[in-house]
Amino acid sequence: MVDLDYKKYVKGSVGLEEMLAYKYILSVQGNDKDSGINWKLNSKSLVMMAKPTVSSWLMETKLVPGYHYVLIKDDFSDLKEKFLWCENNQDKCKEIINNANTFMDQFKNNKLDENIEKEVLNIYFSKLKQEV
Residue 124 domain-assigned? Predict the structure, then answer.
C-alpha cells in the first residue's frame, strides 16, 4: 500500500537562509531547470541531483557528476545510498563543493557576461537577417 501521508516527509516552506545551513541540498528539475541551481552550486552545501537535461545560460549540461555535484538517479531510488557515501567521504564532498563554486565563478563578471550576451544577440540577428 502506498503511504499517502506525505506531510511526515515534507517540512513545509523553508527559507533560503535555513537551506544554506544544510550540508546537502537536492536540486530537482521541474518543467525546466531547477530555478535555484545557481545559488545551490554557489553555496557551501553539496548539491545532489539527477543529470541535468535542460541547459540555460548556466550551461547545466556542462556540469560533471562526481566533480561538480553528486549524481542521483532520476527517481531518487539511490538517494539513501548516495547520502551514506557522502557521510563517509567528507573530504571528497568538500572537493566537489569547491569545484561547484569554481564553476560558478565564471558567472560573477557582469561586464563579461553583458559582452557575451551582446555578441550572442548580434550573431543571432545577423543570421536572421541573412535568412530573410
Answer: yes
Does 48 map to a domain? yes
Question: Of the given ranges (18-22, 28-32, 89-93), which has the lowest mean pLDDT?
Answer: 18-22
In a domain, 81, yes or no: yes
Q: What is each CA distance from 27 to 59, 73, 93, 117, 125, in whole angstroms?
A: 15, 12, 16, 26, 34
Q: What is the pTM of this model?
A: 0.77
Place of cell 530555478: 35
Domain count, the chain: 1
Helix (H, G, I), strand (E, B) or coil at 48: strand
Is the CA virtual torsion 26, 13, 75, 52 positive or negative?
negative
